[in-house]
Design a protein that fits this description.
By secondary structure, this protein is α+β, with helices and mostly antiparallel strands. It has helices spanning 19-30, 72-77, 81-92, 124-131, 136-155, 203-206, 214-229, 239-248, 259-268, 284-288, 298-303, and strands spanning 3-4, 39-47, 51-58, 64-71, 102-107, 111-117, 158-159, 168-170, 176-178, 185-186. Mean pLDDT is 94; it is low at 8-12.
Length: 347
Amino acid sequence: MSGIKKLFSRAEQVDVLDPASEALIKSLEAQKNLGAEHFEPGPTLGTGTFGRVFVAKYKETGAFVAVKKLKKVEVLRLKQVEHVMNEKTILLGLTHPFIVNLWATFQDLGSLYLVMEFVQGGEVFSHLRKLGRFSPEITRVFSAEVCLALEHLHSFDVIYRDLKPENLLLDSRGHIKITDFGFAKVVKDKTWTLCGTPEYLCPEIIQSKGHGFESDWWAFGILLFEFLAGYPPFFDENPFGIYEKILACRIPFPSFFDANAKDIIKKLCQADRTKRLGCVKNGVAGIKKHKFYKGLDWKAVAARTENGPIPIALGGAGDTSQFENYPAVPEEALPATDPFKAIFANW
């Protein structure tokens, strides 16, 4: 059985899907036994430890989608069952302009599949490396879009836990889409799982004190620094060296950072989470009202009234030019049986 995104299943959702997306979902839902044979695979967009993401054409409508394929045996070997199930459940229940849409899921004898919207503009990481660093103007817009996405997630008790430029995509108009929800989790109070990217971990995760949504606002501060500097504030060849620097919490600001940028990052990367910006009395409003965002129209950002600050040049609906080139992947023969059928029965 495949999972299909349900339109408008939550009254609190803030974004109405466009007609093309609605039509795609209805067509996917009409496929009683959705499978790999309904898609024409194209180039690989990215690879991971236990799978890859590739662009594909949905044969029924001709729409281009991104398909995430995860090998069951690797998901089990790396003990990622809970994470992939969380990703599916959370994304199928969410609709937001700055979060990648998951349209449907299905499986075969060897792999799990997530059918997502094809976000054509490539990784923010690639654009950041190309430019060296982002201007304050670009940083303001991109980070504001990330902020609105995190605010939405937190309103549903979802913490993201893997914020970094590699997990941010740009759509065809240059707007942010957060992707890769493998570490996302519904948490009412705290969780104690150690996960995330070393440079972005907050002190309470490193110290195993338990963490909640406050960890996302620390990571948001690290992201702001990396956008403006071109590199994260705490780095070392050894992860333990990174952790020592994070716990010391001395941020080495470059000379070109202005006072407002320094102030908001210091307040976000506050070791005491009870004093961390985004977590104190005013919540997210404190971030939005900070002088770093002076003059920014948050309502216009949410409505995406203008194109994003980096122009995206594309040659058509299936253009993958904004992504790295990966060698072609030969089709693998399916196993004769599925020994993990019971584990993924609800996929």
